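Problem: given the chain below (241 residues), write out its structure.
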Amino acid sequence: MNSPGLGQALRVHPHVHASDVASHVIELGHLKPAVAKALRLLLETAVIPTMLLYVCMLTVGQMWGLVAVLAWCFFTVGVRMVTVRRIPGTLMLCIAMLVGRTSLALALSSIYVYLLQPVAGSVLMAFLFIGSALFGRPITMRLAQDFVHLPVRLVADRRCRRMFVQVSLLWGMSRLLDAGMSIGVLHWGLAAGIFSRGFFSGALTALSVLVCAYWGWSRLRKIPGVEFRLGTPLPQAEPVA
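Solution.
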């Protein structure tokens, strides 16, 4: 008995035989927990570190602000290790970059290093995502599985992989835009640079996520047999390479 998604695929693609169309159900889970997870990630890796740094700059000094940011990173990872079984790859990526730039700024005793290093980090991330796309192993394929469950057969589909390649390219270009914005805002002063990293860059990141998510959804829904299912708990699965 054909599923609704399969029947729709055959109506849209009448030249395709039923035996050639696989039913791929993408479990999106509940929207509220997904949005809450994204907001928590933004708070943990952008908003709270920025506020800690800014408050410390006004009270005890810039270097203590960097120490506070570093302590917050270790605290965040420690709490996740105690409370959850698997730390999301997106969180580890963001925390690793934050720890790296904070440690270098402390070593050089310069708050400007903290603000300028993300420019290099954004450029590096752009090369990472764009490079993974060019080599045909888009890193977005792994990161997406922190938020949705992708059937193994669908991941092996060349159209799905092409979508992830395109999303990797989109994300890479957004990181280049972020780097350019950070340099431009620094001309307005140190405080502007701090808030740019904590809020403007966060807003750009959120917008980039929405654009990439829409692009991925619009590409996947054109693949015959693909169905999206809301409200189903996401199964715990190992990442697919």
